[in-house]
Design goal:
The protein has 362 residues and is mostly helical. The protein has 15 helices and two strands. It has a two-stranded antiparallel sheet with strand order 1-2. The protein is globular.
Length: 362
């Protein structure tokens, strides 16, 4: 089978795994360990995504859709849980907001800009875009409430109060996430059907996928174990690397970690866009953001309670402002179901401005 340039590059990047292990073992400079382990995460994330899609094709559309939705952000979830176990709660929180911002501004911005350079105007389903926009608005409202409670309380607020409130919010978000899956995979599937995917030959591909199911499962398990191991190296080098580079935990969590964890999604969104499959590009970028807000963040709150590292949904006020800006500008350009390169440049300039703001934020 002929390998595409993308697959060749990703397979080549697997070399960063032994490099990260060796750098960590020989106690090389923390920055080198951090960068090597960060790049090692990218091909593992790509292989996990590919194997999940392969399994989904075999088990059918309903269970397959659930698998894709649940494991869509497995990389970010695993890295965050490892960081949470290490007690880096603030970094985990920053990575949540950073991933939301990066998916909406960087991933969608690159896809819209590069797709717009090749095609004068691209179309996607406005009904789905509006539903995603409303769901993102809900996510912003929910994420704002713990901080709002803290800022509007005259008395000193105990951490346990916000922790308990965050448990309630997490359960509500997971319930809504389940309703989203029911809506997209059962009651309103026709809204999410892409004309591009309908053209692909089903029968032959399906039979081939069924014959290699065991391989896909094995790849998923091996990559998950490897990702946990690499994430441990990344997290262990994180604090020393941040000090060496003179960066803040806020900038590292919001900007650096999401770039490593979400690189595969950015590449995927751009690939769809330049092939004029803007429906799929928007689904990857906005859908991933919704998974982070509605699934990953609540799971991390519940996991923190279980492993003895309490985490709540009270975020830095500046992080929330950045998320609100990202949601606002994304919603403003996606409502008409059309995109062009200028709209993509708006998203990218906004991301650059927010990134610079986090860099200079004390």
């Amino acid at each position: 089978m002929k390998l595409t340039t993308k697959k060749t590059v990703l397979l080549g990047m697997l070399g960063f795994i032994p490099l990260a292990i060796a750098a960590n073992h020989w106690h090389l400079p923390p920055v080198l360990v951090f960068v090597a382990s960060g790049f090692a995460i990218i091909p593992l994330a790509a292989l996990m995504a590919e194997s999940t899609e392969g399994i989904a094709e075999v088990v059918g559309p309903t269970l397959g859709g659930l698998l894709n939705s649940t494991f869509g952000n497995a990389t970010e979830l695993i890295v965050a849980i490892v960081a949470l176990r290490a007690g880096l709660v603030d970094v985990v929180k920053a990575s949540i907001t950073g991933t939301l911002i990066a998916n909406l501004l960087l991933a969608l911005g690159l896809a819209t800009f590069l797709g717009g350079l090749r095609f004068k105007e691209q179309d996607f389903q406005p009904a789905v875009a509006r539903l995603n926009a409303s769901s993102l608005n809900l996510a912003v409202v929910v994420l704002l409430t713990p901080t709002a409670i803290h800022l509007t309380t005259d008395k000193s607020l105990e951490a346990s109060t916000l922790n308990d409130f965050s448990i309630v919010l997490s359960i509500l978000l997971l319930v809504f996430y389940g309703l989203m899956l029911l809506f997209s995979m059962k009651t309103h599937t026709y809204l999410y059907q892409s004309t591009e995917t309908a053209k692909e030959p089903e029968a032959e591909h399906h039979s081939q996928a069924r014959s290699t199911l065991w391989r896909q499962v094995a790849v998923l398990l091996v990559c998950t174990i490897a990702l946990v191991f690499v994430s441990e190296i990344l997290v262990s080098s994180l604090e020393k690397a941040v000090v060496t580079l003179g960066l803040t935990d806020l900038f590292t969590g919001v900007i650096l970690i999401p770039i490593f964890g979400g690189a595969v999604e950015y590449i995927t969104a751009v690939t769809f866009a330049v092939k004029n499959k803007m429906d799929l590009a928007v689904a990857v970028a906005m859908g991933s953001s919704l998974q982070i807000a509605m699934f990953v963040a609540p799971v991390l709150v519940l996991a923190g309670r279980v492993i003895g590292q309490p985490m709540n949904l009270e975020f830095n006020a500046f992080e929330l402002l950045a998320v609100a800006i990202a949601v606002l500008i994304t919603n403003s350009i996606s409502g008409d179901g059309k995109s062009n390169w200028l709209e993509g440049s708006m998203l990218l300039v906004t991301y650059a401005a927010i990134g610079a703001a986090f860099y200079f934020h004390p």
